Amino acid sequence: MSDAIRHTPAGPTTEATEHSGASASQGRIIISVDAMGGDRGPNAVVAGIARSAKKNPDIGFILHGPTSDLKRMVQRRKVLRGRVEYRDARDIVRMEDKPSHVMRHGKDTSMWSCLESVRNKEATVAVSCGNTGALMALSMIRLRKIPGVNRPAIAVLWPSRNPSGFNVMLDVGADVRADEEDLLQYALMGASYARNGMHLDRPRIGLLNVGTEENKGRAELKAAHDLIEKAAPGGHFEFVGFVEGGDIPGDVCDVIVTDGFTGNIALKTGEGTAKLIGDLLKEAFKFSPLSRIAAVLALTSMRRLQKRIDPRRVNGGVFLGLNGTVVKSHGSADATGVAAAVKLAFQLAQQDLTNKIKARVASASASEQDAAEVNKVAE
Amino acid sequence: MSDAIRHTPAGPTTEATEHSGASASQGRIIISVDAMGGDRGPNAVVAGIARSAKKNPDIGFILHGPTSDLKRMVQRRKVLRGRVEYRDARDIVRMEDKPSHVMRHGKDTSMWSCLESVRNKEATVAVSCGNTGALMALSMIRLRKIPGVNRPAIAVLWPSRNPSGFNVMLDVGADVRADEEDLLQYALMGASYARNGMHLDRPRIGLLNVGTEENKGRAELKAAHDLIEKAAPGGHFEFVGFVEGGDIPGDVCDVIVTDGFTGNIALKTGEGTAKLIGDLLKEAFKFSPLSRIAAVLALTSMRRLQKRIDPRRVNGGVFLGLNGTVVKSHGSADATGVAAAVKLAFQLAQQDLTNKIKARVASASASEQDAAEVNKVAE
Prior knowledge:
Chain A contains 13 helices and eleven strands. By secondary structure, chain A is an alpha/beta fold.
């Protein structure tokens, strides 16, 4: 633990001082990072955090995995000097491991250790490229749900026509079912995320349905429509009502609320469609000598387009509704992807997202109780 | 009714003989076409059927709407001479009309009349560009469900990586709920559609879920998984098990089975994503003088790509599970779109899809009853 950050308050390194300009390592926001379990191994993770460290002097890391190996990788990167603390973990959660197995036998894994640092308040946000199901299962038992939240949710950013370039959608797969109360909580959590992660003062919330008329869709959606509408003024968001699948990449709202089954299918359908079009586009450019010349001339424009919809730029589903925020990076994330996940984790930690969601959920249930009391008196 | 086709068996016109080479108009397959209710009016519909008539000498039409207006439009197109019969209908179902209203007050509409021609066996397939909800509601009450089918479904073709370029997905919005028995029927109907509309001998069926492991997803999906697996040998299709959203534009199966809520969201998400990428692509090509030159050089390749994923080429959701097939064309369909819908209608009529589905559903319920009997005896 010679590189400890929080535990060596006496010694900010020269390098850190150079970057931050002033403060000691205590001033940094600490992100807990699972170095293992991604498809590209710990090298990609270390390269990613090095990139983040270079861009942002206010981040420090706790890195989970086999310490001796990780140290060797970190020491090759000057920018990480004095900014990484290690927690030794010998086991790895693999992509094919079942969540139930990991819950019972995963105590020595880097993923478990990564969440532990959030649980014991050494860090407020965790980042992992590992197995999503296992990460959600471990997050549930180790971090536990915020009081008043029934089902945590996974939120993702989605390329859209909005000025920011993105929408938030939740839940995209934490749970296959959601009733009206769950959907209300997703709306509250999504609004907090949009405010703190996307800097939108008064996010517009839409409820995903098969039509925009109020009498359409499933019963729980009609009930959720009323609940979210009532919560809007107190929750400091605007409720735009029902939205359709076509509005997910659109600009009528900033947050799309849906159950984890529908959200997961929509997410993967959108990704698959984008991938198919991308591949067909490449084929089209290869078709004739003329189109090959066109491809060269269009290179910069195409790169700009690719960057605009590059999933690595918005890498990371965020687990909301737990005592601590967890950023799930793509399993295939490279250094760019890991750096994007760390950047998001930093923003959410800096804004203290977890406590803001806690306050929102508490205040919403309080007003519901108030309303119930008022109704009782009125009866 | 001077232009009547089926009712004037004596007189095939010269023009028809020229095109078909031999047979009289009785040999033609008659498609019932709602001329009204589309966004572009009856002109687009008449232009569309003229295009179909030119390509295929074996189609005849019954056209529903204000006869005097329609006759004027038809008479301007030589290719339609002797191939169109009229049914006068003064009312129009508008896009904003509620299905319940149309069911009660829609007797004089062109949509009602269009279905009536299928109901009274003058035609086996109906085509309409009108309001989907109203068309489904009217189809249910006028054509009625096939015995053994609980919920009819809307099936669409979807651009995919398959050799044919497309997958079938159903239900995309006839009903927001589906239990395991409904999903089994969708599998049977989807298999018949793929066999007869896409000429696939032994279509591969996938059941849409949030993961491919057998223990994933909602309870009704696990039950449906078993039912469809059991029905596969008798139904002459291959069951590939659970598939994910990313497989909708993929090549692991030919038919994607899901409930109408999820299917509708997936369809619109995919369409919206494709539209967003298309618009960003146009922007990218406009960005610099160099990219504008690239756009010119890439024009042919881009057109080929556009054609590959052009929704007009596969225009038409098909209502399955009714006594008669109904092809719902896009409301915004132009002549190309209408012609594509008519082509599909012709294929399905030629293959006698309705009766094939009837036979499949009957045989599946018979084998279920057989199995139940066997179980009873065994007990």
